[in-house]
Write a structure and sequence with these properties.
111 residues, mainly beta, 5-stranded antiparallel β-sheet, two-stranded antiparallel ribbon, 32% strand
């Protein structure tokens, strides 16, 4: 399916599509068909390119499942991407954004 190498593969929930990353940081999708127990793949198409944050612990295959830089929604139409914040040359990247998590936020609403 990929002549240049790929990693970080994820199946769609229904098993009819395979998503994976290229070495260049492009997320790719290919439709999958099961014909009498033989899987065939349609021509892959590029979805988007991002500066995926790969984590600090690459495995022998390039990435551990616990450090996947993206996930796919159940309908296969949306993606959650862990994208690098600082320039790729920085190790570790300098944070340029802050995330605030507010717990029990409903308590602040008017009754």
């Amino acid at each position: 399916m990929s002549a240049t190498g790929a990693f970080g593969a994820r199946w769609s929930r229904d098993g009819g599509e395979l998503f994976y990353l290229t070495e260049g940081g492009t997320l790719v999708s290919a439709q999958v068909r099961d014909g009498d127990g033989v899987l065939t793949f349609d021509r892959p198409h590029e979805l988007f390119t991002a500066d995926f944050a790969m984590g600090d612990h690459p495995s022998e295959f390039g990435i551990e499942l616990a450090h996947m830089p993206y996930d796919v929604s159940p309908d296969g139409q949306r993606f959650l991407v862990n994208e690098r914040v600082g320039p790729a040359s920085e190790t570790p990247p300098t944070p340029h954004a802050t995330i605030a998590v507010v717990l029990n936020w409903t308590a602040a609403l008017d009754p």
